[in-house]
Amino acid sequence: MITELLSTTVLIGILASGIRLATPYLYAAIGETFGQKSGVLNLGVEGQMLLGCFAAFYVALTTGNLWLGLLAAMIVGAAMGLAMAFVTVNLRAQQGISGIGFYLFGLGMSDLLFQRLMGTVETVKGFQRIYIPGLSDIPGIGEIFFNQNILVYGAYLLVPLAWFVLNKTTLGLKIRAVGENPDAADSLGVSVARVRYFTIILGGTLSGIAGASLSIALLNVFQQNMTSGLGFIAVALVYFGAWKPVGVLGGALLFSMVNSLQLWIQVLGIPVPSDIAVMMPYVLTILVLVATVSRVRAPSALTKPFERDD
Amino acid sequence: MDGAMTESTKLPSGQTRINSLEMRGITKRFPGVLASDHVNFDVKSGEVHALLGENGAGKSTLMKILYGLYHPDEGEILLDGKPVTISSPTDSIDLGIGMIHQHFMLVPTLTVAENVALGLPSSRGVLTDLDRVSKRIIELADIYGLKIDPDAYVWQLSVGQQQRVEIIKALYRGAALLILDEPTAVLTPQEVDELFVIMNQMVKDGHALIFISHKLHEVVEISHRVTVLRDGRTIGTRLTSETTKQDLANWMVGREVGFAPNRGQSTLGEVRLSLNEVHCGSDRGTPGLRGVSFDVCSGEILGIAGVSGNGQRELAESITGLRKVTSGRVFLEGQDITNLAPGEITDRMLSYIPEERMRDGMIKDFTIAENMILREHHKQPYSKNGFLNLRGIANHADELIESFRVKTPSRETLAKNLSGGNIQKVVLAREISRNPRVILAAQPTRGLDIGATEYVRQQLIEQRNKGTAVMLVSEDLDEILALSDRIAVVYEGQIMDIVPRENATPEKLGLLMAGVHPEEGAPVVQ
Fold this sequence. Notes:
Chain A is mostly helical.
């Protein structure tokens, strides 16, 4: 049985789908990183993803255009982000609680729309794998890394891009300052509200793409609650990755590889109870968070509403 | 000075001077408070103008108006004779005004250069230009004698160095006029000296500096002119060289201030608090107290003198039940209270004024009325059968606010919105109004302004004269000498000696505080 897992074909298969499955984690967790860096904890990622998931699928299904579907997911995600920003920045709501509210809204709304507009589970032909001459033909490596669809590539490009924006631009400097000491940023004329609006809406947009990557690039269906906790794991990944894009990448890969492994265990019929296999990534989340807790300090102003006073 | 001004209107940083800035008839109202009442203030190039006043006199309000954080309800600001509108910090920075806040406005996780660059447009558009910022920081540091490493993270810097970063930040933004809001409050004496050297240099170069403080000797040392504010009004402006500390103190408080309190009469009574060979640990696991014994009697103040960290905190905590006594006994009116729960000790009428009044003395997010019943909330008339009696609580609060002259908009105001002196008055009111048998006061005047300090000291003396046993822990030798009937000097967890007031001199106590017995002349070796 174990020997089956160790065959080259299966190993390549595990790694390739591991690379692919990291996609939604990456979009969602990088988006969440921006929010948390600026001091906002968005627990509504899961809800944003679900609505993005549905919007992408429904628009792609009805128009036949995957790009329109993706755009719809981004718009829906951004709109959710805008609402979240208003609630946390202007109304200074408790971020943990309002995030749960947004999650429940996304969960219920996506299901309602699904029931009303579709009713039955359908499938679309999602984004196809892109063949890169030369690279895709490398034995093993080509199959694992260079035989993926556009959204997978996009997710990996996002990691260095996010690092660059956070560390090399004036915008990134403002984001980091606002998350650590908003009073200092404010005293230098940086608008704390504008920075936070930007990061929350960006986070929402990326969560929307994360949802779309499930429904029109990886699984190509829409079902009720199909993200099944993935958005919450993305939030945990930000802690795991110590608020660094490359750390988030490491965490996303760890979880997607474990996920891939458990899928292959089921596919190959290895007699591990499927419930246990499905549990693996989640158990890992808890273990890893316990192990890494307090290793790195969170942004000081995380979850704290900003109010100018003295 | 005038000659220099005609030579050049430029500062060494390349900025144009601000020759004069004038605030005229500034009025600012907050709900229930008139924070500034037609205040006049001006400052010129080449001078340090001190703004002196008690906590809550309106110094910070005035400066926040100048810096654009608050908007005045009335009045005008003239810069080099021309009226200007300052509606945000951005406006004031553009006009050449910089502010060094009392609580530093720095991001600890960023480098010095990043802190300086924050919020400024970059020469490379959306990309940061930290290398150029660093170069300019080094230039400015050279000109003004502010040694600083642009690549160091702020969390790595000492408080004095962080203050230099704040000054560089202002200079980088072209500050010609600098507001320093209580800049010495967080500094060691040596760092204060260094700051004054920098300030003198800046003034010589043509900067205008506003120095906010309530420490008289600093004002006298550094400033050219001084303006005193009281209750939101300008009391007057003088040349510093034409005033004395006593004048300024009287002006600031609005009446004759006695630096030495009037002690009155007291009769020594029975022993109320008694420690017998008390030992306990410290937070670091090392011995905190090593066999401390003394008595405090009714009608006396026993002062505990010592250099910070010689067991004062452990002493207060072992008496109040907050720290475990490992051996030895503590007696309150003859009853053994060693290692009883803090609540039980409290109920035997020991009152405690803790050193960290904001952390241990009250609950910041509770109202004044609630804070005033923290110790007695479970007793009548504040509660009955587990239900709070709101009327009883309110009456109690109103009485105390009046008799202890707490300055507050109402009894429902949150404690965190009061000034340090008023917070201490609330603590004092709560602890004294229950008519305790023993009062333990730890650093009761630290950080308070002159008026509040005087008030707190007078209250302690009145308690002594009423027959309460008072134990005063203080690192301020002047305070110890002014209040105590007997003085116990603590050194490395032991009592070096207990000296009657008549025999105590600063020199003698200083030696004891350093672990030297004056008679023997040799350090005590443990």
